[in-house]
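1st attempt posting a full record on here, be nice pls
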Amino acid sequence: MLLWSQDRDFEHIEEIIWVTTEEMMECRNQVFAKNLVFSEERKIMKNILLKDVNIFNGKDDKIEGNLSILIKDGKIAEISSKPAVPAGEIEEIDCKGMTVLPGLINVHAHLSLDAEVPFEESLEESTEMTLLKIVKNGRLTLEAGITTIRELGCRDHLDFAYREGVERGIVPGPRMLLSGKVITKTGGHGYFLGREADGEAEIMKAVREQVKAGADVVKVMSTGGVMTEGVEPGLALYTFEEVKAAADEAKRSRKLTASHAQGTEGIQNAVLAGIDTIEHGIYMTEEIIELMIERGTYWVPTLTPGERLTDPCATELIPEYAMEKANRVKPIHRENFAKFCHREGLKLGIGSDSGVPLVLHNDIVTEMEIFTEYGFSNFDVLKLTTYGNAELLQMQDKIGAIEVGMEADIIGVCGNPLESLSVLRKPNMVMKEGVIWYRSI
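the predicted structure (as tokens):
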């Protein structure tokens, strides 16, 4: 039997040898054992000292310089100019004045969608190919400094398999809050990523299925949308009672809720039903904004997809029916965001809708930059994308800030993000839970 061995990066064949079947099985077992050791080692957290850093802590409109951060057991143990270094093995990293900040958070992502191929083609890929792309997209997400995402719709429950792989140290990836399959009416928006359910009883069962599979958040499609043929963004898909059935069932399991809601009736149904976050919110009104402020409902506008409509590749990747709808609703979306985004008491989240055509998984900065076009400062959007998004996820006691006791989700950049958000596009270091996943210093 012919067997070839390759180097670790699978780039060069080192040698070709003839072996017996027994020798091949022994070789396979040795490789399998080595991979197990590698996976286990990836989960071992080192004590790390980041020396000479400038810190944006996620909360305050300033950067504090000449500090060091001590990381123990995956958490931030001390922040000072002269930290008490514990006895024992510790890795010291001279950051040479690099700016560090909390890992970025994207609260609207679709890892199973490929932003760089025609949309309908990506939906026709095999389950196996989709899973491979999820692994790739997750790695790109993490390496871009996005250490946490909220995944709002993945086909075939592949998001749960991927998260298990990340947690077991088999593949790299961000921290993930997952929704599993979106809940939509028969033939409704996103049915290709969803669980079709009609009527209150069936919707409740659909919610229970996602919770059973491991969902952290339940997403219900309250209206039509752009990327599904034959449905209108402005029209409600579910009645108020149906949306409330989904929201109530999710809350019985203490799960967060999100609603794809673009049209006025659907947005209002979702807010009144007790949904936690409104995704998109194109046809927003004064009355609905007042309800959202009163109830503490978040608005995640996802403005990046509209920004991509003028890209030269847009007509190649976006179906004609979707282009027509997108161009029709974009000015309405932008007008209403401009009208309401600075309303006192309104809670906003930053999510890119990554995975839809031309919205890359390693880019949350474009969404942040669009916010600045509507009067938000760099500080405003930095806080929204770190501590603010952590609050949306109800994880502000663990992530979103550089403070003692928080998870060590830290990214490092050359430059001052309070002056230019563009420095976030190429991080020099990415750490998640105290493990450095990318480093160029």
